[in-house]
Structure formats: C-alpha cells, structure tokens
Amino acid sequence: MNQNPHLRASKTAVLLLNLGTPSAPTPKAVRAYLKEFLSDPRVVEIPRFIWWIILNGIILPIRSSASAKKYASIWLPQLGSPLMHYSRLQAKELGEKFSNEGNTVLVDLAMRYGKPSTQEALEGLKAQGMERLLLLPLYPQYSATTTASSFDEVFRVLSTWRDQPELRLVKHYHDNSAYIAALRDQVLSHWDKDGQPDFEKGDRFVMSFHGLPKRNLMKGDPYHCECLKTGRLLGESLGLELGQYIVTFQSRFGKAEWLKPYTAPTIEKLAKEGCQRIDIFCPGFPADCLETLEEIAMEAKESFLDHGGRDYRYIPCLNSNPKWIEALSNIAYQHLLGWSLGTESPDELAKCNERAELAKSMS
C-alpha cells in the first residue's frame, strides 16, 4: 500500500537564485538567452510593442554574435560558463555545510533565465519532500530588475501548485556583517599575495557594481543606496579613507542616463591623471561572469593601460571563498529560525500514519 504523500518526511529547502547564462558561447544560445532576459518587463521598462520591435529588429540580430565572442573569451575548459560553475559550487558547498553541521536542508540553484529554470528547481525540491522554502538570491543588493524578478518567477510557478510550501524571502544582505567580512577576506587575500596598493602614491581601489538606469532610482529602487553602503562598509573594514576607494557603476546600455560615476570613464580619467595602479573588485557579483571577467578584467584593463596606467589588478569575485560560503550559511540561518532543519523521526511518522488510518476508518 502506498504511503499517504502528505505523511512523508517534510523537509526545509534553500533555493539560491541567480540571473542566468547562455548554455553555450554560440550566437544561437546567446540569442535565446538575451531574448528571454531582455523580454522581462522588470528589466526593460518601456512599452512592450515598441521594445519588441527594437529587441527583435535591432538588438538580437546585432548583439548575439558579438556577445557570443565575448562569452567564448571567458568560457572555462571542461567547466563551461563561469557563472554556472561557481553558482553550482556555492549551492553544493552550502548544502555540505548544512550537512556537516548535522542539519538536513535541501539546497538547490535556480536561474531566472535559462537553465536550471526556476520551475525545474522547485519541482525537484517538491519531489524530495520540500514543505518549507527559503529563497536566497545571489544578489546582495536588492533591485526590482534582479531580486524582484526572481521572486516573481517563483510566485508564478507556485501559483500553479495546489499544495504550496511555507515561504520565506531574503530581500537583501548588502550590509550583512558576514558578507562584508567575506568581501574583506577576498580583497586582503589578493593583497597578501600580490601586495597592497600604495595609496600615498596615488594608487586607487575601485569597487564596480552593475549599473541601472537612473530612472530606476527615481522610481524608488533602493539598489543605488545599497551599493553605496556596501562600498562604504567594505572600505571601512579595509581601513581605507575616503578618496582611496571609489564606487562606480558598469555595464551601461543605451543612451539614457544610468547610475554614476560610470566605471569605464572613471578608469580612463584615473590613468590620464597619473594614477599608476588600480585594484578593481566587483562586490555585487558573488560569482565571476561575463560582466566581471570580460568587461572588467579585460576591457577595462586595456583602457587603463592605453590611457597611461601601468598596473591594473583585477580581484576575482567571491566564487567559492570559504568565508563566502560561511556568510551564505549565516544569512540562511538567520531566516530559517524556528523552522525544522531535519526530518521527522520514524516514530513520529508512524504516529502520523496511525492517526490518519484511524481518521479514515471513522469517516
């Protein structure tokens, strides 16, 4: 006789949410990814019909091939997409940390665009007995374009379920002390290996965050303020003074005004003014990706050197830094408070089955 599915062991799950990546560094795969990404009204907030014409008539035909070449330049041999590789590694190591600490917590990864899809991840967790779900975005700073969009997709999937899990959300952790400590450790580890910048000689530490159109800020998106706070807290934790570190915003697209100062012009300006060395870090990206490895580690470096700079040092993202896994665990535990982090014992399940059979016989 099959056991009542409602009486199986119920489990708590943590679902890491990230943006996504093409499945391959090819024009076809990149086009499919960009179409899904740029069709999201949370990402591009202009009238749908007008944007559909621009996207399908101009952007996708032109950008797909160019972007595919950029993805090919950062693709990892045998491992594929850096974002996918490091995001999966973070989920794996977070799950192992829970297990090593004696907790039975399911951990999985979902991408907002591409694979593994949110629906696939949720269905997989449901099949394993998930009854309590914590959504943990890999976006430390909240934005409607990233965090809210990922939540939207979870809500959309769950709206089709008859039996929904208990649900909790981590909105942001831009000022979480464990997150700031992980960032600090990543920077100091780099400096311990390669030497610290000489700030008295004009060297600078640049923190580059992904940009957004300025209108998002004017409409109430807190992302800009949260990036500035992360930058300030990291600068303070490193013992830096104002002026020794700079917060900038990268990846501007289109003609509209975006959050300032822009990363690329700032780097050029520093070089022209005689700055010989900059160390650059992307605190808002927990995993290396196209925007960090190609735009910052390659393109920005070339620009800095072309405009007179001599020493350009890119500091990798948190990736699988143990301090970062510890921070993810710290953040998760804060939001899991009060939930069971194991499964019911066999005796408890047996009692549940007995009560269910008794109720059935009396009906």
Automatic annotation (TrEMBL):
Catalyzed reactions: heme b + 2 H(+) = protoporphyrin IX + Fe(2+); Fe-coproporphyrin III + 2 H(+) = coproporphyrin III + Fe(2+)
Annotated Gene3D superfamilies: 3.40.50.1400
Keywords per UniProt: Cytoplasm, Heme biosynthesis, Iron, Lyase, Metal-binding, Porphyrin biosynthesis
KW Mitochondrion (keyword) present: no
CDD domains per record: Ferrochelatase_C, Ferrochelatase_N
Signal peptide range in chain numbering: none
EC number(s) given by UniProt: 4.98.1.1
Pathway assigned to this chain's UniProt record: Porphyrin-containing compound metabolism; protoheme biosynthesis; protoheme from protoporphyrin-IX: step 1/1
InterPro entries per record: Ferrochelatase, Ferrochelatase_C, Ferrochelatase_N
Name of the top EC class for this enzyme: lyase
Pfam families per UniProt: Ferrochelatase
One of the GO biological process terms: heme biosynthetic process
GO cellular component: cytoplasm
Lyase as UniProt keyword: yes
Binding site for Fe(2+): H210, E291
Entry-linked NCBIfam families: hemH (TIGR00109)
Family from the record: Belongs to the ferrochelatase family.
HAMAP family named in the record: Ferrochelatase
Function: Catalyzes the ferrous insertion into protoporphyrin IX.
Name the record gives this protein: Ferrochelatase
Species for this entry: Polynucleobacter wuianus
Gene name in the database record: hemH
